[in-house]
Amino acid sequence: MSKRWLAERRNDYYYKKAKKMDYRSRAAFKLKQIDDRFHILRKGARVVDLGAAPGGWLQVAREVVGPTGKVVGLDMQSIEPIDDVIVIRGDIREEETVNELFSQIGGKVDVVLSDMSPHISGSYSMDHARSVELCHHGLVFASKILKKRGCMVMKIFQGDLMQDFLAEVRKHFGEVRLHGPKASRSSSSEIYIIAKGFLG
Q1: Which distant-in-sequence residues (6+ apart) come within 8 Å of 32 by Cβ?
Q2: pLDDT tens digits, one per residue of 102-115
Q3: Average pLDDT for 43-62
Q4: Is residue 107 part of a domain?
Q5: Which strands form 70-75's sheet, in the order they lie side by side?
Q6: Distance (Å, whole) CA 172 – CA 186
Q7: Gap between the terminal Cα atoms of the chain
Q8: For 30, which of 9, 42, 115, 123 is 20 to 30 Å away at the CA?
Q9: Is the pLDDT of residue 11 over 70?
Q10: The one catalytic residue among 17, 155, 171, 196
């Protein structure tokens, strides 16, 4: 990490706000802004967050769903424990991960979140392609665990493969929109797919 990058992060509004509010990442505000606009989360909902480390989205989801809801974080990395959040370390492409989720949460879920990103290579076309691939895996996973009429939010890097992937998402959901929350960095190519009304 360069000194310039570290300095920019320290001066970042959402980074400082996350520190002040004890969120694990500035990304927490992306989910807050998405939910304020699209009302994805609700009290009592069952929520799964893919690529959940370090846990900022898990914290936000936990706040919204309340004590009657359930929140599960999945990641190949370890996640420090969060009160009343189930954490599973596993690969979403593996059937055993799906089975463990079902055993932990006791059935299908209302919402699937994904802020997954590929390891940045520096090649835009490669990073875009890897992002689309991650989203594809997330969509396959969601199709196994979402309740009918459930919702999904996933990050994707914009590029020439995105429209074909959106066409695939539309086969599974009644409403699909794109949204760029204010908390996304202006230099980022990321955008979020908001998919509602899972068709089952």
Answers
A1: 60, 183
A2: 999 889 999 999 99
A3: 96
A4: yes
A5: 86-89, 70-75, 46-50, 109-114, 146-157, 190-198, 173-179
A6: 30
A7: 43
A8: 123
A9: no
A10: 155
Domain that holds residue 144: 24-198
Residue 155 annotated as catalytic: yes
Alpha carbons 6 and 15: distance in angstroms, whole number: 11
pLDDT at 181: 87
Q: Report residue 184 as tokens.
A: 């996304």
pLDDT, position 1? 47
Q: CATH number of the domain at 64, please.
A: 3.40.50.150
Token pair of 137 as six digits: 């895996």
Task: Please indicate, yes or no, if residue 6 is contained in any of the structural domains.
Answer: no
Count Cβ neighbours within 10 Å for each residue of 77-87 and write b for 16 or more, e otherwise: eebeebeebbb
At residue 6, the pLDDT reads 46
Q: Is the pLDDT of residue 97 over 80?
A: yes
Distance CA 138, CA 152 (A): 9
* Chain-centre distance for alpha carbon 126: 21
CA-based nearest residue to 184, from 9, 18, 14, 23:
14
